Amino acid sequence: MGKKYENIISWVEHEIEEGRLHHGDKLPAEKEFAEQFEVSRQTVRRALEDLTDRGIVEGRRGSGTYISVNTRRYTGKEIRVAVMLTYVDTYIFPMILRGMEAVFSKEGCALQISVTDNAVEKERMILKEFIRTQSVDGVIAETVKSGLPSPNMELYMELQKMGIPVLFVNSFYKELDIPHISMDDQRAGYLAARHLIECGHTKIGGIFKADDGQGHLRYAGYTEALMEKDIKVRGEKVIWIDSEELRDMEEESTKFLKRLRDCTACVCYNDEAAYKLVSIFRKAGIRIPKDLSIVGIDDSGLAKFCTVPLTSVKNPVERLGRTAAERMVACVCRKEEMQTIEFEPELVMRSSVQVRSDV
């Protein structure tokens, strides 16, 4: 029985290697195998049991036996990981990629970079291409406008059904049971607001992004810090903006000057918002930090080189990218399960916050 049993296994392996069987394909029924190889059904079952033990196939009750292995990895082809980010050449994104590239280069994996420009349509197009070509072994994705309902969630689920692991980085869709690697964004918002409170500020405004989940979490941390000290959360002093409005903040300077007029401090969604707020207020003759203290989030280059160097909450972006790549390699190559990791942020103090003299 041994040789006949091995013939069935060899046939399945050869079909995978030749690209005629892929993840999710159904194998012939036991009866068909028995007739094709002129063996007993007991021999067929033994072959399928061995293939199951090796993780190549899986049986589904009442349905049959299906290919379960990631066929690109099984056939020894180059491991290719797709990294899909909203942007790649600005702000914190080059540092995220640097961390990833260091790992993938060391492991001999090919890195395929895609850019969505934070657009739902581009995210959908890229995901559909991954599904159509089955050309990648794993996907590391920064979600698009994760604070809003997304029509692309079923595409991420389809990738997983195909045996292509998905890991979210930097942001995530909370509706999907997919692990993510990010900073603890709620904690970041909390640290920013708590620092201003410790410096004697009670009239603390905020600028947060409405279309990104990170904005909601950072706002939650901001409100947590204020309520912890029984400071009223003044809704009229919290400005919600979307991605396009963040880019064009300086064109809407009147809105920010009016809404934050009575505040002595402001927590900004990120360093980009903080950097632009400094420019808006300085042009209006308002002194930073004497008249308005500002805290950003991410500790990017913008924070360091702003005309008033910004106090900011550090986002460990290079470590974040490196960890995401390590987890994906471990999953694809060693079948290790991926888990969510949220890094603890830390405050970096510079010149944009003033301690109030009455503290």
TrEMBL record:
The keyword ATP-binding does not apply. The keyword Transcription applies. Residues 2-70 form the HTH gntR-type domain. It comes from Candidatus Mediterraneibacter pullicola. Keywords: DNA-binding, Transcription, Transcription regulation. InterPro entries: AraR_ligand_bind_dom, LacI/GalR-like_sensor, Peripla_BP_I, Tscrpt_reg_HTH_GntR, WH-like_DNA-bd_sf, WH_DNA-bd_sf. This is GntR family transcriptional regulator. GO terms for molecular function: DNA-binding transcription factor activity; transcription cis-regulatory region binding.
